[in-house]
Design goal:
There is one protein chain. The chain is an alpha/beta fold and 444 residues long. The chain has 13 helices and 19 strands. Helix 8 packs parallel to helix 9 and helix 12 packs parallel to helix 13. The longest helix is centred in the last third of the chain and has 24 residues. The site of iron/sulfur cluster has 9 residues, from helix 6.
């Protein structure tokens, strides 16, 4: 951490702090923790305020994952630095993954930033703005999501060796949070009206191995499921190799654990899986998906894939496209490979042309669009429990237990015909469907 003289940042009347979050749900979580601490120190704290204030301290929580995300972070830093130069904001502080990964280079390049912090620097950041880290606020945060759902980070960092991934460089080794702390945090959230917990980590299924000597995500799930007021518990970022099947028992036992599983699989050809150091084979992946579907009938599976990884041949790609057609995931996202320095794959030649990477990603998403449309047609006439997220134009928008916020399908209800309170559950009978959205009527 390097700051200009601390005194300059501390003022006698506390300036407003405007927190800007880029990147993934884990960054959202970190921003919320920071905001909770600032509020606990009597700061006026806002999230991505439209109007800036000339005394504002702007804290930008950056992403350093892949090229596009890095560029977005740099553009945001430059945007606020320009405002500072114009005297429209007071101070600019940068934290998060991009700063963790490229601090020396960024400091040299963007000198108008007042302070740079890494991903594990909360106490120093707070001190720099004149706040103290308050232990009594552990588990408390200011939600930036609608209060009825909250991202729930159960661990930080990752021990996996995936060749393309820079996350361990920015987030360090896997560290699980103690279960009692997590249960206390869930109780506080539920007491404030949160109904849905979206469990996140770099590798959810590694939970407990470090602090309890065994995988015990299933035990954590049952304890969270016992928390009064929590109606949905959702799992994101499961890892395939060594997948703890016992979490599916908890899913079958407990109605408030969503029959939903996000498991990034990245590729399917053995050639690619080996080079990516994923620790799993094609056949084992196929068997795992089948076992999960057998064990939890009707489970919605989401996955994420990469196209254009070094050495990916037309044949590797066709193998993946055919597998996507056959496996018919409920939800799927696809990234193009980004050549990230200091990752293992950086020593390989980035030999797939950018346009070919993109063509392949588009082709995969086209297949998925067709699958999603067909699956959605199958939902017409059926009734689902829906959590209303917001009013959006002419519609109330919500989700079933098979949909995560921001990335999955929405259920749209005509607001001229129905009224629903955001944060409430309603039963919706589906009467029409598109590729990624469902339309329906509220029924008793
Ligand atoms: S599991 Fe692999 S892809 Fe995911 S954060 Fe860890 S190293 Fe990266």
């Amino acid at each position: 951490m390097r700051t200009k003289s601390v005194d300059k940042l501390k003022t006698n009347t506390k300036p407003r702090v405007n927190v800007v979050t880029l990147g993934c749900s884990k960054n959202v979580y970190d921003s919320e923790v920071l905001m909770g601490q600032l509020k606990g120190n009597a700061f006026d704290v806002v999230h991505e305020a439209e109007k800036v204030g000339k005394n504002d301290i702007v804290v930008i929580n950056t992403c350093g994952f892949i090229d596009n995300a890095k560029q977005e972070s740099i553009d945001t830093i430059l945007q606020y630095s320009a405002l500072k130069e114009q005297g429209k904001v007071g101070k600019v502080i940068v934290t998060g993954c991009l700063s963790e990964r490229y601090k020396p280079e960024l400091e040299a390049e963007i000198t108008s930033v007042d302070a740079w912090f890494g991903t594990n620097d909360l106490q120093n950041l707070l001190q720099t703005v004149g706040a103290d880290y308050k232990h009594e606020l552990i588990g408390e945060r200011l939600l930036t999501t609608p209060s009825h759902f909250a991202y729930f980070k159960i661990a930080e960092g990752c021990n996996r060796p995936c060749s393309f991934c820079a996350i361990p460089l920015m987030r360090g080794k896997h560290v699980s949070k103690p279960m009692d702390e997590l249960v206390t945090e869930a109780r506080k959230l539920a007491a404030n009206g949160t109904k849905e917990l979206i469990l996140i980590a770099q590798d959810l299924t590694y939970y407990g191995l470090d602090i309890y000597g065994k995988r015990n995500l299933d035990e954590l799930l049952r304890r969270l499921s016992d928390v009064n007021g929590i109606e949905w518990i959702r799992l994101q970022y499961a890892y395939p190799s060594g997948f703890p099947m016992e979490i599916l028992d908890a899913m079958n036992e407990r109605a408030n654990i969503c029959k939903y599983l996000d498991m990034p699989l990245q590729h399917i050809s053995d050639n690619m899986l080996k080079s990516m150091r994923r620790g799993i084979t094609k056949q084992k992946t196929i068997d795992l998906v089948n076992q999960i579907r057998d064990k939890v009938p009707g489970i919605a599976m989401r996955t994420t894939l990469i196209t254009g990884y070094p050495g990916e041949t037309e044949q590797d790609f066709n193998e993946m496209a055919q597998w996507v057609e056959e496996t018919r995931f409920d939800r799927l996202g696809c990234f193009t490979y980004s050549h990230e320095e200091k990752t293992h794959a950086y020593s390989l030649e980035d030999d797939v042309a950018e346009e070919v990477k993109q063509e392949r990603a588009d082709a995969i998403m086209e297949i998925q669009q067709g699958i999603s449309f067909e699956k959605n047609q199958g939902k017409i006439g059926k009734t689902f429990k829906v959590l209303i997220d917001k009013k959006d134009g002419e519609y109330f928008a919500g989700r079933t237990e098979f949909d995560s916020p921001e990335v999955d399908n929405e259920v749209l209800i005509d607001a001229n015909l129905h009224y629903a309170t955001p944060g409430s559950f309603v039963n919706v009978q589906i009467d029409s469907a598109e590729d990624f959205d469902l339309y329906g009527q509220i029924v008793k």
